[in-house]
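Ligand: adenosine-5'-triphosphate. Inputs:
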Amino acid sequence: MSVRELLPTASPRAARRELWALARAHRGLALLTVVALVGAAAIGLVVPPLLGRLIDIVIDGGDSGELTAPAVLLAAAALAQGLLTGAGGALTARLGETILAVLRERVVERALSIPVAQLERAGTGDLLSRVSGDVAVVSQAVTLVFPAIARAGLTVGLTVVGLVVLDWRLALAALLAAPIQVLGLRWYLRSVVPIYRREREVQGERTQQLLDTVSGAATSRAFGLGDAREEHVRASSQEAVDVAMLGVAKVKRFLHALNGAELLGLSAVLVTGFALVDADAITVGTATAGALYFHRAFDPIGELLMFFDDLQEATTALARLIGVASIDPPAEPERPAIAGDGSVAVDAVHHGYVDGHPVLHGVDLRIGDGERVALIGTTGAGKTTLAKLIAGIHPPTRGDVRIGGARLEDLGPAGARRTVNLVTQEVHVFAGRLADDLRLARPDADDDALWAALERVDADGWVRSLPDGLQTIVGEGGHRLTPTQSQHLALARLVLRDPPVVLLDEATAEAGSAGARLLEDAAERALAGRTALVVAHRLTQAAAADRIVVLDAGRVVEQGAHDELLARGGSYARLWGAWSASRISAPADGRRRASSRPR
Ligand SMILES: Nc1ncnc2c1ncn2[C@@H]1O[C@H](COP(=O)(O)OP(=O)(O)OP(=O)(O)O)[C@@H](O)[C@H]1O
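Predicted complex:
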């Protein structure tokens, strides 16, 4: 059993540092954004004192000419604030999107260089949920939540300053609202946030039920399961509605509490203002301005509190993205070694994925330059593990792997990739032109080189018959390739890459028998002239090798040529006997029969 070791998540401090560094790279835009947001909030501050001034002029019986200046200023402030708010929102979104784009690129770049072993420990789902789900959450926050929070935060902060400057006693009275807000927020976080989380889970379940029902419609019809499927969808929809309604009820209570806080705070400001006016300490206009300030700060406070959940979600998602973006790419040695030839030496190699569960126990193996070795053994014997260690995907727990005399770590990640290639049955065909898919192996290859590689693995025939030949769009959304054709492509990429050492793991195991035969021939041609370790599932593959190595429970128990091992009557002879018997009773392709040496 493997232990999940999720990819790193940045600490809040590291996330802030990274964001700061990203924002600094766009300091011009960031500065402009701050100026617009602060400007909008600051201009808004002049509105309550101006209204207060108007009231004082009216109360003092001033002439109407005196009203003109404050009224014009009010109109100008409203216009300027509107313009700056609009500009601030647009600039915040632009800054956020720019930073997110850089972050996204970095996440993808780092994701591609994450050592496979680390990715396997984390599970690809972890990385996928980050590059899809987390990016979506942050994207939405960048355009909606962050600008609103920046605006609200600045308005609240500056308004509180304005209130204190206007009259500290009014500011003190306004503070009466704070305890209700703090207690309300604590209650909200404890009771509503978990409901939101549950709501998202239930919605995910409902989507899954819908997808299952739609994609499995034909099966449901065939087995008369329509009613049962409908019931599943109905039940999950009902649950989603129930949970959403529970959330709505709680949010309404929270809003009531906020309204109560507003009532209390505003009453306190008005009563204090009344008392101060009564004592001739301030004018009616100042008291009015105080009440307006309070009111002005209140809406954004509500907004800030309501966005708290989104903000939490977005910060978590951001920390998960920054966590991946901060993974150091594997270090290259200062002076990478160069493999002298294609020989492989495995010395006393031990390996285990989980402490206390060793998989390989001191494996020694020598493969000569250009030699073809077949690795066989029962399921779980450790064949794939050994191949991965030789490919440098996992470093062995103990022991050494050398290629052409150089240790894998001295070759460095890039050198190891150039020297050893592991071809597995998991072949991914990238969406795009077939030629581009092939060029992943050798970006500078011209069309002639691509055709030569395809011819070498006998794939040129079907590629020529595609609607646009090399330019045919394949992969997701394009021309669908059969598993055999995908494997053909993988082998053609191998030819283009041209590594001296190849590890072929189950590359031909999945295809149907006719395809398997074709691929065996293609693999044969792709491997010609290279050192090869073939994890063989059909013993015909093993029999054709120069040497066969039998692995049992993580140990090499036998090795030698096919005839030699048959004559010895050991593990291989027994496996061959059992396999031949099964072939005679149920021949895979209905034509061939097992013989002592099939090739
Ligand atoms: N990533 C992993 N984490 C934990 N255990 C693993 C991991 N990969 C393989 N194992 C375990 O290591 C042992 C050897 O697995 P391995 O895949 O190397 O065997 P194999 O001989 O290639 O088997 P098969 O023929 O079924 O592919 C098995 O017990 C397997 O469960």
